[in-house]
Structure formats: structure tokens, C-alpha cells
Amino acid sequence: MSKRLPPRDGEWIDRDQPVQFQFEGKSYEGFSGDMLSSALWANGVRLLGRSFKYHRPRGIYSLANHDVNLMVEDGSRTNMRGDMLPIEPGLNVRSVNTSGGLESDRLRIMEWFSKFLPVGFYYKAFHTPRRLFPFYENQMRKVAGLGKINAANELTVSPKDYAFCDVLVVGAGLSGLAAAISAAEQGLQVLLVDEQPRPGGSLAWGCASEPESGQLLEGLLEQVDGLDNVQLRCGTQAAGCYGDHWVALVDDQRLTKLRARSIVIAAGCFEQPAVFGNNDLPGVMLGSAAQRLIQLYAVKPCDRAVVLAANSDAYHAALDLHEAGVDVAAIVDLRPEGESAEIVQRIADAGIPIHNGHTIYEAVPGSGKKSVRQAVICRVDDQGISETGSKNHIDCDGIVMSVGWAPNVGLAYQAGVRFRYDNNVEQFLPAKLPAGVFVTGRANGVFDLEARIDDGYRVGLAAAAHLGKYDDEIPEPIVHDGPPPSHSFPILTRSKKKNFVDLDEDLHLADFANAHQEGYDNIELMKRFTTVGMGPSQGKLSNMNAVRILAKLNGASIDDTGTTTSRPFYQPVPLQHLAGRRFHPRRRTPINNWHVQADAEMVYAGAWLRPEFYRVDGKSRDECLFAEAASVRANVGMIDVGTLGKIQVNGPDAVRFLEHIYTGRFKKQAVGRVRYGLACDETGVIIEDGVVARIADDRFYVTATSSGVAAFYRDLQRWAMIFAMDVTLVNVTGQLAAMNIAGPKSRDVLRELTSVELEPEAFPYLGVREGTVADVPAVLMRVGFVGELGYEIHVPASQGLHVWNAVMQAGESVGIQPFGVEAQRLLRLEKGHLIVSQDTDALTNPYEADVAWAIGKNKPFFVGARSLQIAWQKELTRQLVGLKFDAKNRGPLPEECHLIIAEGQMVGRITSIAKRSTLGHPIAMAFVRPDLAEPGTRIHVRVDDGNMVPAHVTTMPFYDPDNTRQE
Amino acid sequence: MRQDNFERNKQMKIIDCPINGPRPLQEFHYGGEVRDMPDTATSTDEGWADYIFNRNGEPGIKREWWYHIASGTWFIAERDNCTDKFLRTYLYTAERRDE
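ok -> C-alpha cells follow
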């Protein structure tokens, strides 16, 4: 660890705990508390990674959790940023995006081609010919891009947590700590988060040469410690802000879904780079990065440094470097007037020369561009352009720049804060805050130590006032006094070398000029064309300069140029933290276990599990379900229909209500009778069907489809309010079990079990009776969905299995057979009964579906009536018909949704098909053009292989057209 | 300077159900804008089609139907669709319709 400095107060490393780790196959030693980047730098390693496009050598740049330069993978995790990856024993990582290792990456030849790879090159060059794109894409993926995903990784599930607080404070620096303290003092529950492993913000690293500020931090932390209602969570990023102060907190373990009542954003600033030639070489770094290295990790950033300055922070960085034993060769200050504070005297005392009104023109690389050898500086003229005539070379192995800041306010944008550009501090400042959201500290343009504490207290009180816990005076916001901490345009060179603006995406100054020349003069367009800010750091180090460059190119103000949108997440979040538990609610009928024991193949029908068919050894699925259907036709079968929607409609207005909802008439419906109910929406489209049973004068029991009942019941509730009708609606779907026993022998099976008189005279078709079945109170309905004599039995869910068993037992002697959903679908198709949403779609009206008979004559009103009145006057565009296929057809038969073709045009589609029916030939239901709806018309259906299968239009029902079987 | 209101995230909101109090958005179903049905006996085909098919998306305060799924409660919310703020929620009351 040749570059490790002697122990210092406040360092984050534990020198008693050395840690061995491997990088690129070599072993190194660091200390517990080191990040991968700092540990490597301490070992004298300067080449940490290769850039995205040109594969240029890169080193430490920000050390603030947005260095894309060092991204590593360990075989299971990838794209881990080295500046935030703690080293631990056994860590063994490689740099991503190299070919043949970091040191001699074969892809470094990419830079030779850079002249031929201008911005937008890929868009222009690789879109034709289209058939070659997969090849291009494959090649590009190999060259560009980041780490590889190990698809063999095991699924790991990370926990989700929920949290609530009065005030969320984002950032535990000076202002954040002060805000947390002042809000907590007003009795509020405060959650304070910081993405760094320890609190302190810029004070943790920016105070190396200012011991008194270290004491300031300790004082604040002690105060926070003493407050029970402040919770501090470090290593936690506020990743995104959503509606009503819902904030996603992400740490290395989990996602915490936080609901805050108020948000204080005290997230500070990102230091912004200057743009000059070769400003990406290992050894070129931000002032704050150098200070972090020195103070947090006790690592010497370089041996001889040139400091590029445009604010007082640079001078503090220079002093920190000097104090750490770095030979500071010069301070190069972009500003003609230089720094005016007493700090200049301290710089002079340290013997550091200052060049005011100068810039670094370019950095001269060492061998392989893996280091800095010299800084070339020159004067800046009064137009802000470098005078290349005045070039001067200074030997150095490090260039440290501190020229400005951009506020860390992505979260504030997401929370709805509006920003404007402020020339007093040369940065964006909040202009309009939504209720309950506050911005403080450097993000709010407040830079002086004392002022930052005051500003934090101010917003703490403001948050308390917002939450009704404080009604006294709130201090006025603080306005920055003194020269701006940021340079208005730190892009002063015209170096022929690459002047990088975005290190993530390898974009340099010329790319922006080219994009602008091509007409991309809007920030959102320029972002998409150049991809600036679209790398892993999301432009934290590049967006501000990009806006400044575009504003200058357009001759517009920064405000008029605008910014791009800040979307979640603040930092890359592993998908593992976001992945849900794949939780899907499942509904089982009370008879479910019986089905499972009877070896039923269970399928989902919406959330319900239903038997598709019952397996029989040695028989195929189709054979099984056909046998079930045949048993219903010839003998007796029973199906669990507990999933049916079941609604009670009671009250004095029940009849009137049902007449408003359904297309049919119910006024004259006798007690004890069942009618078909067809419901449309206001546009006249069929939305539901079922039966309506009149139990008493003011008591109805209606059924609805399994998947539609929730929405239908919701609609009914609303209509009852809108119509102001005195009805009570109860959705009893889950409270009742239901089964349908059907077939010629169903009456015989049931006779012994029920108190209800079953003879046809006493209980005719479409009757409803109350009584008992197997001593359980039951409602029995005679309905004909499957087209045979049958009884639907509805009993309390708790008794469902008992009744089912009793019926099965009673039917044993005649060979009763349970049947599943598939057999029922076949049977109802033979009977020509449509299934809403299977044989109808989102535009089907009753005329098209051939159920106009269900519309009551001369009804003054029902939902959809007015629309159907209009539809009736228009010509039909399609009709639902039956299709009959030739029994001798041996080729593939159509599937549902296959198209009917006539003269090369689509003229219809299959909605339901049975490839085998009890009628001896395949049948289907289909929509066809009305001129093809005449029975006997020959049509052709195109099947998957392109063949045309002929069929004849026929009348429905296919089976028992005179309805004699169900009577 | 361009500030994009529409980009803001509309998820994870809290709605104040008049019966159950503030509950997360996931517990609710949106039922569309509150619109008065024209008299079906007198409205023209065009007037009816306008009611059925056209929706007014202009910025402003909307009266909307919302449904609290778990308790089966329909209510009306007044919402500013510019700021996506719920201003007021209350139960629906209707005059009884004469026939």
C-alpha cells in the first residue's frame, strides 16, 4: 500500500483489519472500510477500467458513487461501481468491458477508428440492409456495453420493507443533520438517509485542513444521537419519489417502501468536471475525489499535482493535497480576478504558485495513456477562449479540478419541484416547491458552513409548520453572498485531443458541435442523439456541462435551454430488489379437494381453479373430455359451477332495477321462475349474461360469469345509486357452492336426496325452487346450459362438499360421471349457447350475436337501449353463426381465432370450435360477414399451415334444435 | 424553461375514501368522469353518441367516480388533473328519477 498516508482523524478505514482481495487476477491488500477504488489507488494502481466506447484507460474520477470508470463483476454480480464497493476478504473481481484483460484490452484499437465513429454513426450506418442488423447488433454488443449477465445465477429473493415517517431527510450532511434536528425538536418522527456508509456529507471529506469543521460535524451527530425520534440510515439511497411522498429507499439488502408526510432534500451537489484535452486520463480527478481519497481513505491521490480552480473549494483541495504531502505544482484559476479570500495567503505560504486567468489546455499522457505526464496551461482571453500562443508545460502526475457544482436534486424534480437557473451561484435552484417538499443546503445554493446549518434548521421548521407542529416564525431563506461556487462555462479549450464531456458514454466536445450542426438543438433531442447522460451515472457529471454547451451553441440562456427529465432511479438498483414475489391470489371452490383426489387436471379460469377434465388411465385428454360429455348426453354427469357469479337483488325496486340493467322483461316473471338475463353497457355492447331467478316478489337471485362478476357487481352498485333505487345488492359468489347435475337420469339421482318435488309438472324447465338437498338448504334451478334435463344446486359453501358427495353417491348405481370445464364447453357449443367474451368481443351487440330475442319489446329504458336503437337502424357488419365441418376431414382443423377468407379478404373468424362432437362431425361458432350468414353457405377457414378448410354455415342449436331434451 | 408536468409519476397515491379514510391507490378502481346521462327519449343520435364516446380531457378540476374495492364503496372525487391532487371526496347522492 505504497500510497497510504499516515493515520488521520476521521478516516473511514480500520487499519487493524487488513483485507486481501483480487482484482484482474492479481492480489492486493487494503483495509476494512476501503472501497475497491481507494484500495487499488492505495496500492499504486492507476488503470482501473476501460471506457465504454473507445476503451481508453480510466482511473478515479469522482469517488462519489458515480464513477463509471471502475465497474467490476465477480461472476454472479455485475456492473458494480468500484467507488462504492467495499472490499471484503475473498473479493475477486474483474473489470467489465475489456477483451483480454484490462491492461492490454484488445479493443483499445477502437480509439483509432474514433474519427470514423462520429456521434450518431451507429444510427446512420447500421440500419440497412435490414437483414444484416442481427449481425451488426451481435458485433456491437461485443464491443460496446458493460458487464455480462450470468444467466446461470440462482434466483435470490430480497426482502421488501415498509416504513412511515413524518419527515424524510435525504442527505446526512450539515444541512440534513440540522433539518433533522430542528424537525425532531418539534416532536416529529424523522428518518434521515444517506447513500454513503457514514454520515457527514461533504463535511466528512472537506474538512481536512479545517479542523474546526470536524468538531462541527461531531456536535451535530451527538445531537442527532440524543434524539429518540430521529432514525439515521446510512448506505441507503432515496432511489425515487412517487405520488404523495412515496419514496423508494434502497440499501444493499432490500427495498423499503417509505410513505413520508414531508420530504427534505439535503442531498448536496455533484462536483462537475472541467472540459479540456485528455481530461479523462487516470490521474485527472475532481477536487472532491482527491479530498475523499485523502480524508476518508488516507490515500495520496498523486505525487505532483496541478489544481484547476474556479472557486474557493479548489483552494481548499490544494491545501489538503499540500498537507497530505503532495507537491502542488500550481493552481490554475479560470477566473481573471482569481480568488479573493484570505486563503490565497495560505496558498502563498505553502509556496504554491497561482496562475489567474489561465486554463488547462490539455493533459499530456504518459505511456499507453495510462497516466498524466504534464499539464499544458495557457491564458484565457477576455472572450473566454484559450490563447494557445501562451502554452506552458508543467510536469505532474495528477490534475485536480474544482470548477463548479450541480445540485443533486433528481428526487426533487420527481417530487414536483420546479427549478430555475440562478446567476448568483451559477447553478439551478428551486423556484417553486410543492406542499411538503423542501430543498436545503448546497442543493439550495447555500454554501457557507454556518449558513448551511441555518438553512437546515429553517426547512426543519418549515416541514414542522407544514405538518401543523410549528406555528411560529420561520427564518427567511438565505441568499449566497460572494463569488459563485460554479464557473458559468468551464469549457475553455480548443484542444485537438479529445475533450470529454460524458465519461460514461465517451462523448467529447466535438460530438456536441456535430449534433447541433445536424439540427439537434433541443436538449431532449440532443440527449437522445448523442446519448449524453444516458450512461450508468445518468449524467451526474455531464448533464450540466451539456446544458451549458447547448445554451452557448444556441446563443440561449440556461433557463431557455432547460434540462432533461430526472427519472427514478437515482442510482442503478439491482432488479433483485425490485422483483416482486409473483404473488397471484388463487380461488378454490369448496369441492376443490374432491377434484384433485379424482385426478382432475386443474386449470385457471380467472383466479379460480377449475377441473378441465378428469384423467383416466390410458386415455388422452380429448378422449377423457369426450367421454364426460357423452355421459351427460346419454346418462348423467355433474359439474362444479361454484365459480359462477352469484348476486342477490332484493328490495321494493328490485324488478324495476333488473329491467334497467338487463335487456329483458321481468315485471311479469312469476315467483319460482327463471329467465335469461343479457346485460349491455351504455354503448350497447354485451357485457354479461346469466339467469335471473325470482325467489319472491321482491327477492331475486342472479348468476353472472365467473370472470365478469366482480366488474358486473361494481356496475350494479353504481347504477343502483344513479337510478336512486331501493335495492340491496349482495355479491354471494364466495358464500355459495354450486353444482349442475345434468343428463336424462339426473332427476332419478336427485329424487332421493331432495325435499323439492321434481316431477315436471311441479318443477318445470326454467323453474326455481327452495328446499333441501342432502338435508342442506338449497336453491335449485332448472336451466339448460348443456342442453339436457338438469338441476343447478346452490348451497352454502360450507356444505358444498357434503352435497356433492351425497349426489355422487346417489348417482353411483347409474354411473354418474363428473365432468369438467372442457366437456361443458363442448356441450354448450352443441347447444349453440354463447359464452360472453369468448364468442363476443368488446364491440359485439345483441343483433350481431343473434340474441336479439333477449331484448324486451317496447322497453322505455335499459342500459344500452338508446345505443341499440341506433344500432338497429344500421346494417349489420357481422353475424354469429354456426359452422359444420365435414366429418371426413382428415387435415388440421381450425383453432379459435382462425380467419374465414373469401376472395382473399378476411370475412370472419372462429370464436369457438369443437373438433369432435357428439353429433359426429366438428362444429364451430364464428363471426361472418352478413351476406355469408345464410344457412348452407360454404365458407373457407385458413388454418395455421395456410391451407383452407371448407365448412358450411348452419343454424343453431346444432343439437336438439327443438329443445325437447331439457324440458 | 421547460418543466414537464406530465412526466411526474402518478402511482403510489393515497386517496381519501369517505367511508374508510386514506388508503393507497391500489385499493381503488377508477370509474371515469361523472357525466349526466341525457334523456334517452329526447336526445338526438348525435347527442347520445357524444355522451357515449367522447370524453373531455382538458385540464381542470374533474369530478370522477372512484370505487374502494375492498369495501365496495363508490364515491365521487374532485381531482385537479393538472396537479393530480385529490381536492375532495364525498358519497354520491342522486335525485330519484321520475318515470
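The domain at 14-38+46-90 of chain B is CATH 3.30.2270.10 (Folate-binding fold).
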